[in-house]
Known about the structure:
By secondary structure, the chain is an alpha/beta fold.
Amino acid sequence: MVHMDATALITVFFNAEIAEDARPLCSLRWRGRYHRRHIRVRRSSLDKSNADRHRLKRLTMPRALITGVTGQDGSYLAELLLEKGYDVTGLVRRASTENFARIEHLRDRLTLVQADLLDQLSLIDALERTQPDELYNLAAMSFVPSSWQQPVLTAEFDAIGVTRLLEAIRLVNRRIRFYQASSSEMFGQVREVPQTEATPFHPRSPYGVAKVYGHFITVNYRESYGLFACSGILFNHESPRRGREFVTRKISDGVARIKHGRARALALGNLDAQRDWGFAGDYVQAMWHMLQQTEPGDYVIATGEAHSVREFAELAFARAGLDCREFVREDPALRRPAEVDHLIGNSTKARTVLGWRPAVTFPQLVDMMVDADLAALGR
Ligand code: NAP
Ligand code: G4F
Protein backbone atom coordinates (compact mmCIF):
# COMPACT_ATOMS: atom_id res chain seq x y z
CA MET A 1 0.00 0.00 0.00
CA VAL A 2 2.74 2.48 0.89
CA HIS A 3 4.16 2.27 -2.63
CA MET A 4 0.91 3.40 -4.28
CA ASP A 5 0.65 6.81 -5.79
CA ALA A 6 -1.55 9.10 -3.62
CA THR A 7 -4.05 9.84 -6.37
CA ALA A 8 -4.51 6.13 -7.06
CA LEU A 9 -5.04 5.51 -3.36
CA ILE A 10 -7.79 8.11 -3.17
CA THR A 11 -9.44 6.69 -6.27
CA VAL A 12 -9.69 3.32 -4.55
CA PHE A 13 -11.40 4.72 -1.49
CA PHE A 14 -13.35 7.65 -2.94
CA ASN A 15 -13.91 8.07 -6.66
CA ALA A 16 -12.08 9.29 -9.72
CA GLU A 17 -13.57 12.80 -9.66
CA ILE A 18 -12.62 13.48 -6.07
CA ALA A 19 -9.21 11.98 -6.71
CA GLU A 20 -8.80 14.38 -9.61
CA ASP A 21 -9.65 17.31 -7.32
CA ALA A 22 -7.06 16.11 -4.87
CA ARG A 23 -4.30 15.66 -7.46
CA PRO A 24 -2.55 19.00 -6.79
CA LEU A 25 -2.50 18.20 -3.09
CA CYS A 26 -1.18 14.71 -3.68
CA SER A 27 1.64 16.05 -5.77
CA LEU A 28 2.69 18.28 -2.86
CA ARG A 29 4.36 15.43 -1.07
CA TRP A 30 4.18 11.72 -1.60
CA ARG A 31 7.03 9.77 -0.23
CA GLY A 32 5.11 6.70 0.85
CA ARG A 33 5.14 7.91 4.43
CA TYR A 34 1.54 8.98 4.87
CA HIS A 35 -0.05 7.53 7.94
CA ARG A 36 -2.97 5.14 7.84
CA ARG A 37 -5.28 8.05 8.74
CA HIS A 38 -5.31 8.83 5.01
CA ILE A 39 -7.20 5.66 4.22
CA ARG A 40 -9.55 5.48 7.18
CA VAL A 41 -12.49 7.30 5.62
CA ARG A 42 -14.57 5.01 3.42
CA ARG A 43 -16.12 5.98 0.14
CA SER A 44 -19.63 5.28 1.44
CA SER A 45 -19.30 8.04 4.01
CA LEU A 46 -18.60 10.66 1.36
CA ASP A 47 -20.46 12.44 -1.38
CA LYS A 48 -19.19 15.25 -3.55
CA SER A 49 -20.36 18.11 -1.32
CA ASN A 50 -18.05 20.98 -0.44
CA ALA A 51 -17.76 19.70 3.10
CA ASP A 52 -16.44 16.40 1.80
CA ARG A 53 -14.03 18.09 -0.54
CA HIS A 54 -12.76 20.15 2.38
CA ARG A 55 -12.47 17.02 4.49
CA LEU A 56 -10.65 15.20 1.72
CA LYS A 57 -8.32 18.14 1.28
CA ARG A 58 -7.37 17.94 4.95
CA LEU A 59 -6.91 14.19 4.72
CA THR A 60 -4.45 14.47 1.87
CA MET A 61 -2.48 17.46 3.19
CA PRO A 62 0.85 16.74 4.81
CA ARG A 63 0.61 17.41 8.55
CA ALA A 64 3.09 19.29 10.66
CA LEU A 65 3.23 19.78 14.40
CA ILE A 66 5.30 22.70 15.69
CA THR A 67 6.33 23.05 19.32
CA GLY A 68 7.18 26.66 20.22
CA VAL A 69 4.73 27.97 17.62
CA THR A 70 4.20 31.17 19.64
CA GLY A 71 7.92 32.02 19.41
CA GLN A 72 9.83 33.92 16.73
CA ASP A 73 10.80 30.87 14.65
CA GLY A 74 7.51 29.05 15.26
CA SER A 75 5.54 31.90 13.73
CA TYR A 76 7.73 32.07 10.60
CA LEU A 77 7.75 28.30 10.20
CA ALA A 78 3.95 28.11 10.56
CA GLU A 79 3.62 30.73 7.80
CA LEU A 80 5.98 28.81 5.53
CA LEU A 81 4.27 25.44 6.02
CA LEU A 82 0.79 26.93 5.51
CA GLU A 83 2.02 28.48 2.25
CA LYS A 84 3.26 25.04 1.21
CA GLY A 85 -0.16 23.51 1.78
CA TYR A 86 0.44 21.78 5.13
CA ASP A 87 -2.17 21.19 7.76
CA VAL A 88 -0.35 22.89 10.66
CA THR A 89 -0.89 22.30 14.35
CA GLY A 90 0.92 24.34 16.98
CA LEU A 91 1.62 22.98 20.42
CA VAL A 92 1.08 25.59 23.13
CA ARG A 93 1.49 25.43 26.88
CA ARG A 94 -1.25 26.70 29.12
CA ALA A 95 -0.86 30.19 30.53
CA SER A 96 -3.23 32.41 32.48
CA THR A 97 -3.13 34.89 29.61
CA GLU A 98 -2.75 33.99 25.95
CA ASN A 99 0.59 34.75 24.35
CA PHE A 100 -0.39 34.52 20.67
CA ALA A 101 0.72 37.92 19.32
CA ARG A 102 3.16 36.42 16.78
CA ILE A 103 0.57 34.01 15.36
CA GLU A 104 -2.51 36.22 15.62
CA HIS A 105 -2.59 36.66 11.82
CA LEU A 106 -2.57 32.86 11.36
CA ARG A 107 -5.12 31.90 14.00
CA ASP A 108 -7.92 30.95 11.60
CA ARG A 109 -5.58 28.65 9.64
CA LEU A 110 -3.78 27.00 12.55
CA THR A 111 -4.95 24.33 14.95
CA LEU A 112 -3.60 24.66 18.49
CA VAL A 113 -3.22 21.81 20.96
CA GLN A 114 -2.24 22.17 24.58
CA ALA A 115 0.80 20.27 25.84
CA ASP A 116 4.03 20.96 27.67
CA LEU A 117 7.57 19.72 27.18
CA LEU A 118 7.58 18.98 30.91
CA ASP A 119 4.65 16.57 30.64
CA GLN A 120 5.31 13.28 28.84
CA LEU A 121 1.68 12.16 28.59
CA SER A 122 0.57 15.49 27.13
CA LEU A 123 3.13 15.04 24.33
CA ILE A 124 2.04 11.48 23.57
CA ASP A 125 -1.55 12.66 23.51
CA ALA A 126 -0.72 15.57 21.17
CA LEU A 127 0.97 13.19 18.71
CA GLU A 128 -1.89 10.70 18.91
CA ARG A 129 -4.41 13.42 18.21
CA THR A 130 -2.60 15.21 15.40
CA GLN A 131 -0.79 12.27 13.73
CA PRO A 132 1.84 14.54 12.16
CA ASP A 133 4.11 13.59 9.27
CA GLU A 134 6.67 16.12 10.49
CA LEU A 135 7.41 17.39 13.99
CA TYR A 136 9.47 20.53 14.50
CA ASN A 137 10.73 20.97 18.06
CA LEU A 138 11.31 24.69 18.47
CA ALA A 139 10.09 25.02 22.05
CA ALA A 140 12.77 25.94 24.56
CA MET A 141 13.88 28.32 27.24
CA SER A 142 15.92 30.24 24.67
CA PHE A 143 17.37 33.23 26.55
CA VAL A 144 20.96 32.41 27.52
CA PRO A 145 21.29 34.68 30.65
CA SER A 146 18.17 33.13 32.21
CA SER A 147 19.80 29.73 32.02
CA TRP A 148 22.17 30.76 34.84
CA GLN A 149 19.13 31.79 36.94
CA GLN A 150 17.19 28.58 36.22
CA PRO A 151 19.69 25.92 35.15
CA VAL A 152 17.57 22.95 36.22
CA LEU A 153 14.41 24.17 34.51
CA THR A 154 16.46 24.98 31.40
CA ALA A 155 17.66 21.37 31.31
CA GLU A 156 14.11 20.10 31.80
CA PHE A 157 12.89 22.08 28.78
CA ASP A 158 15.89 22.07 26.47
CA ALA A 159 17.43 18.68 27.23
CA ILE A 160 14.97 16.22 28.78
CA GLY A 161 12.09 17.81 26.87
CA VAL A 162 13.73 16.59 23.65
CA THR A 163 13.87 13.03 25.00
CA ARG A 164 10.21 13.25 25.96
CA LEU A 165 9.30 14.20 22.40
CA LEU A 166 11.48 11.47 20.89
CA GLU A 167 9.93 8.93 23.25
CA ALA A 168 6.49 10.10 22.16
CA ILE A 169 7.48 9.53 18.51
CA ARG A 170 8.89 6.11 19.36
CA LEU A 171 5.64 5.11 21.04
CA VAL A 172 3.11 6.72 18.68
CA ASN A 173 4.60 6.47 15.19
CA ARG A 174 8.27 5.99 14.31
CA ARG A 175 7.74 7.36 10.83
CA ILE A 176 7.21 10.92 12.07
CA ARG A 177 10.10 13.05 10.83
CA PHE A 178 11.71 15.09 13.61
CA TYR A 179 13.55 18.41 13.58
CA GLN A 180 15.49 19.51 16.67
CA ALA A 181 16.35 23.19 17.12
CA SER A 182 20.01 22.97 18.08
CA SER A 183 22.20 26.02 18.48
CA SER A 184 25.57 27.56 17.67
CA GLU A 185 25.72 28.29 21.41
CA MET A 186 26.87 24.64 21.67
CA PHE A 187 30.22 25.65 20.12
CA GLY A 188 30.76 28.18 22.94
CA GLN A 189 34.48 28.59 23.39
CA VAL A 190 35.13 27.68 19.81
CA ARG A 191 37.63 24.99 18.83
CA GLU A 192 37.89 26.12 15.22
CA VAL A 193 36.89 29.04 13.01
CA PRO A 194 34.47 28.88 11.23
CA GLN A 195 32.38 26.17 12.88
CA THR A 196 31.05 23.19 10.91
CA GLU A 197 29.03 20.05 11.72
CA ALA A 198 32.33 18.41 12.71
CA THR A 199 33.51 21.12 15.15
CA PRO A 200 33.62 19.80 18.76
CA PHE A 201 31.30 21.48 21.25
CA HIS A 202 32.42 23.49 24.29
CA PRO A 203 29.25 25.15 25.63
CA ARG A 204 29.63 28.14 27.95
CA SER A 205 26.17 28.38 29.54
CA PRO A 206 23.64 26.00 31.11
CA TYR A 207 21.56 26.70 27.99
CA GLY A 208 24.41 25.59 25.72
CA VAL A 209 24.99 22.46 27.80
CA ALA A 210 21.29 21.54 27.64
CA LYS A 211 21.28 22.06 23.86
CA VAL A 212 24.28 19.73 23.49
CA TYR A 213 22.22 17.05 25.25
CA GLY A 214 19.26 17.79 22.94
CA HIS A 215 21.53 17.47 19.92
CA PHE A 216 23.07 14.16 20.96
CA ILE A 217 19.82 12.55 22.07
CA THR A 218 18.44 13.37 18.62
CA VAL A 219 21.46 11.73 16.99
CA ASN A 220 21.11 8.81 19.38
CA TYR A 221 17.44 8.12 18.57
CA ARG A 222 18.33 8.24 14.90
CA GLU A 223 21.08 5.67 15.45
CA SER A 224 19.22 3.54 18.01
CA TYR A 225 15.74 3.39 16.48
CA GLY A 226 16.25 4.50 12.89
CA LEU A 227 14.13 7.61 13.39
CA PHE A 228 14.26 10.29 10.71
CA ALA A 229 15.65 12.81 13.21
CA CYS A 230 17.62 15.91 12.20
CA SER A 231 19.48 18.47 14.25
CA GLY A 232 19.71 21.97 12.80
CA ILE A 233 22.67 23.81 14.31
CA LEU A 234 21.40 27.31 13.71
CA PHE A 235 23.45 30.42 14.29
CA ASN A 236 21.74 33.54 15.66
CA HIS A 237 18.76 34.60 13.58
CA GLU A 238 16.70 37.67 14.19
CA SER A 239 13.66 39.56 12.93
CA PRO A 240 11.16 42.19 13.99
CA ARG A 241 9.47 39.32 15.91
CA ARG A 242 12.56 38.67 18.05
CA GLY A 243 12.01 38.91 21.83
CA ARG A 244 13.05 42.32 23.21
CA GLU A 245 15.53 40.75 25.64
CA PHE A 246 17.87 39.61 22.84
CA VAL A 247 20.54 42.12 21.91
CA THR A 248 19.48 42.89 18.31
CA ARG A 249 15.87 43.62 19.21
CA LYS A 250 16.93 45.40 22.38
CA ILE A 251 18.97 47.72 20.16
CA SER A 252 16.32 48.26 17.44
CA ASP A 253 13.68 48.86 20.09
CA GLY A 254 16.06 51.19 22.00
CA VAL A 255 16.79 53.17 18.85
CA ALA A 256 13.08 53.63 18.19
CA ARG A 257 12.42 54.73 21.79
CA ILE A 258 15.22 57.27 21.68
CA LYS A 259 14.12 58.56 18.28
CA HIS A 260 10.54 59.01 19.53
CA GLY A 261 11.71 60.73 22.73
CA ARG A 262 10.67 57.87 25.02
CA ALA A 263 14.20 57.04 26.25
CA ARG A 264 17.49 58.87 26.53
CA ALA A 265 20.05 56.07 26.59
CA LEU A 266 20.55 52.37 25.95
CA ALA A 267 22.51 50.15 28.37
CA LEU A 268 24.30 47.19 26.80
CA GLY A 269 26.75 44.53 28.01
CA ASN A 270 29.68 43.22 25.98
CA LEU A 271 29.87 45.31 22.81
CA ASP A 272 32.79 43.31 21.41
CA ALA A 273 30.96 39.96 21.23
CA GLN A 274 30.61 38.81 17.64
CA ARG A 275 27.77 36.80 16.15
CA ASP A 276 26.87 35.36 12.76
CA TRP A 277 23.44 37.00 12.43
CA GLY A 278 20.86 36.00 9.81
CA PHE A 279 17.14 36.54 9.21
CA ALA A 280 14.73 34.10 10.89
CA GLY A 281 12.51 33.93 7.79
CA ASP A 282 15.44 32.50 5.81
CA TYR A 283 16.39 30.03 8.55
CA VAL A 284 12.99 28.32 8.87
CA GLN A 285 13.29 27.36 5.20
CA ALA A 286 16.39 25.34 6.07
CA MET A 287 14.41 23.49 8.76
CA TRP A 288 11.83 22.42 6.20
CA HIS A 289 14.47 21.36 3.66
CA MET A 290 16.14 19.09 6.25
CA LEU A 291 12.94 17.06 6.64
CA GLN A 292 12.47 16.67 2.86
CA GLN A 293 15.74 14.79 2.29
CA THR A 294 15.97 11.07 1.65
CA GLU A 295 18.33 10.64 4.63
CA PRO A 296 18.27 12.42 7.99
CA GLY A 297 21.29 14.49 8.99
CA ASP A 298 22.65 17.44 10.95
CA TYR A 299 23.30 20.83 9.36
CA VAL A 300 24.96 24.10 10.30
CA ILE A 301 22.84 27.05 9.19
CA ALA A 302 24.71 30.35 9.08
CA THR A 303 25.53 33.31 6.86
CA GLY A 304 29.32 32.92 7.16
CA GLU A 305 29.76 36.55 8.29
CA ALA A 306 30.39 37.73 11.85
CA HIS A 307 29.70 41.22 13.21
CA SER A 308 30.12 42.72 16.65
CA VAL A 309 27.32 44.03 18.87
CA ARG A 310 28.97 47.44 18.45
CA GLU A 311 28.64 47.22 14.65
CA PHE A 312 24.98 46.26 14.96
CA ALA A 313 24.37 49.25 17.25
CA GLU A 314 26.25 51.67 14.98
CA LEU A 315 24.23 50.66 11.92
CA ALA A 316 20.95 50.66 13.84
CA PHE A 317 21.41 54.15 15.26
CA ALA A 318 22.61 55.43 11.89
CA ARG A 319 19.44 54.08 10.26
CA ALA A 320 17.46 56.46 12.49
CA GLY A 321 19.88 59.35 11.84
CA LEU A 322 21.45 59.07 15.32
CA ASP A 323 25.04 58.66 16.54
CA CYS A 324 25.40 55.48 18.59
CA ARG A 325 28.23 56.95 20.73
CA GLU A 326 25.89 59.57 22.20
CA PHE A 327 23.35 57.06 23.52
CA VAL A 328 24.93 53.66 24.25
CA ARG A 329 26.50 53.06 27.64
CA GLU A 330 28.21 49.85 28.72
CA ASP A 331 26.84 48.25 31.86
CA PRO A 332 29.11 45.61 33.43
CA ALA A 333 26.06 44.09 35.16
CA LEU A 334 24.88 42.92 31.73
CA ARG A 335 28.00 40.86 31.11
CA ARG A 336 27.68 37.08 31.43
CA PRO A 337 29.46 34.74 33.87
CA ALA A 338 31.04 33.03 30.83
CA GLU A 339 30.86 34.68 27.42
CA VAL A 340 30.81 33.29 23.90
CA ASP A 341 33.10 35.80 22.20
CA HIS A 342 32.96 34.96 18.54
CA LEU A 343 30.69 32.71 16.47
CA ILE A 344 30.87 32.26 12.72
CA GLY A 345 29.45 29.32 10.83
CA ASN A 346 30.36 27.40 7.71
CA SER A 347 27.11 26.20 6.12
CA THR A 348 28.66 24.55 3.04
CA LYS A 349 26.84 21.28 3.75
CA ALA A 350 23.43 22.98 3.86
CA ARG A 351 24.21 24.98 0.75
CA THR A 352 25.34 21.87 -1.14
CA VAL A 353 22.86 19.25 0.06
CA LEU A 354 19.78 21.35 0.82
CA GLY A 355 20.38 24.07 -1.77
CA TRP A 356 19.79 26.56 1.06
CA ARG A 357 21.29 30.03 1.24
CA PRO A 358 20.32 33.14 3.17
CA ALA A 359 18.64 35.95 1.22
CA VAL A 360 18.77 38.81 3.74
CA THR A 361 22.13 40.50 4.35
CA PHE A 362 23.37 41.92 7.66
CA PRO A 363 22.66 45.60 6.78
CA GLN A 364 19.22 44.63 5.41
CA LEU A 365 18.45 42.80 8.66
CA VAL A 366 19.42 45.81 10.78
CA ASP A 367 17.32 48.15 8.62
CA MET A 368 14.34 45.79 8.68
CA MET A 369 14.36 45.60 12.48
CA VAL A 370 14.89 49.32 13.08
CA ASP A 371 12.24 50.29 10.53
CA ALA A 372 9.72 47.93 12.11
CA ASP A 373 10.30 49.32 15.61
CA LEU A 374 10.24 52.92 14.42
CA ALA A 375 6.95 52.23 12.65
CA ALA A 376 5.44 50.40 15.62
CA LEU A 377 6.25 53.20 18.07
CA GLY A 378 5.22 55.89 15.61
CA ARG A 379 1.70 54.49 15.27
P1 NAP B 1 11.51 31.94 21.35
O1 NAP B 1 11.01 33.09 20.53
O2 NAP B 1 12.03 32.21 22.72
O3 NAP B 1 10.33 30.86 21.44
C1 NAP B 1 10.40 29.78 22.32
C2 NAP B 1 9.09 29.01 22.26
O4 NAP B 1 9.19 27.87 23.14
C3 NAP B 1 7.86 29.79 22.70
O5 NAP B 1 6.79 29.48 21.82
C4 NAP B 1 7.57 29.22 24.08
O6 NAP B 1 6.22 29.27 24.45
C5 NAP B 1 7.96 27.77 23.87
N1 NAP B 1 8.18 27.02 25.12
C6 NAP B 1 9.07 27.30 26.08
N2 NAP B 1 8.99 26.38 27.05
C7 NAP B 1 8.01 25.50 26.71
C8 NAP B 1 7.45 24.33 27.31
N3 NAP B 1 7.87 23.87 28.50
N4 NAP B 1 6.46 23.66 26.67
C9 NAP B 1 6.00 24.13 25.49
N5 NAP B 1 6.48 25.23 24.87
C10 NAP B 1 7.49 25.91 25.47
O7 NAP B 1 12.66 31.18 20.56
P2 NAP B 1 13.09 31.24 19.01
O8 NAP B 1 14.06 32.33 18.82
O9 NAP B 1 11.87 31.17 18.19
O10 NAP B 1 13.91 29.89 18.88
C11 NAP B 1 13.27 28.66 18.54
C12 NAP B 1 14.17 27.51 18.93
O11 NAP B 1 15.41 27.61 18.23
C13 NAP B 1 14.54 27.44 20.40
O12 NAP B 1 14.65 26.08 20.74
C14 NAP B 1 15.91 28.09 20.47
O13 NAP B 1 16.62 27.61 21.58
C15 NAP B 1 16.50 27.63 19.16
N6 NAP B 1 17.51 28.49 18.56
C16 NAP B 1 17.24 29.80 18.33
C17 NAP B 1 18.19 30.59 17.70
C18 NAP B 1 17.92 32.04 17.40
O14 NAP B 1 18.87 32.76 17.11
N7 NAP B 1 16.68 32.48 17.43
C19 NAP B 1 19.42 30.04 17.31
C20 NAP B 1 19.65 28.69 17.55
C21 NAP B 1 18.67 27.91 18.16
P3 NAP B 1 5.59 30.51 25.29
O15 NAP B 1 5.10 31.47 24.24
O16 NAP B 1 4.51 29.84 26.04
O17 NAP B 1 6.68 31.08 26.15
O1 G4F C 1 21.17 38.34 21.62
P1 G4F C 1 21.80 37.46 22.63
O2 G4F C 1 21.15 37.42 23.97
O3 G4F C 1 21.93 36.03 21.95
P2 G4F C 1 22.81 34.75 22.29
O4 G4F C 1 23.23 34.71 23.70
O5 G4F C 1 23.88 34.65 21.26
O6 G4F C 1 21.76 33.58 22.10
C1 G4F C 1 20.87 33.54 20.99
O7 G4F C 1 21.50 32.86 19.93
C2 G4F C 1 21.78 31.47 20.20
C3 G4F C 1 22.47 30.92 18.96
O8 G4F C 1 23.85 31.07 19.11
C4 G4F C 1 20.47 30.77 20.49
F1 G4F C 1 20.69 29.45 20.67
C5 G4F C 1 19.81 31.39 21.70
O9 G4F C 1 18.55 30.77 21.94
C6 G4F C 1 19.57 32.88 21.43
O10 G4F C 1 18.63 32.97 20.40
O11 G4F C 1 23.33 37.92 22.87
C7 G4F C 1 24.23 38.02 21.79
C8 G4F C 1 25.53 38.66 22.29
C9 G4F C 1 26.10 38.02 23.54
O12 G4F C 1 27.48 37.86 23.41
C10 G4F C 1 25.83 39.03 24.65
O13 G4F C 1 26.80 39.03 25.70
O14 G4F C 1 25.24 40.02 22.64
C11 G4F C 1 25.90 40.33 23.86
N1 G4F C 1 25.20 41.44 24.51
C12 G4F C 1 25.77 42.66 24.77
N2 G4F C 1 24.87 43.42 25.40
C13 G4F C 1 23.95 41.43 24.99
C14 G4F C 1 23.75 42.70 25.56
N3 G4F C 1 22.97 40.49 24.96
C15 G4F C 1 21.78 40.81 25.51
N4 G4F C 1 20.79 39.88 25.47
N5 G4F C 1 21.54 42.02 26.09
C16 G4F C 1 22.50 43.00 26.15
O15 G4F C 1 22.26 44.09 26.68
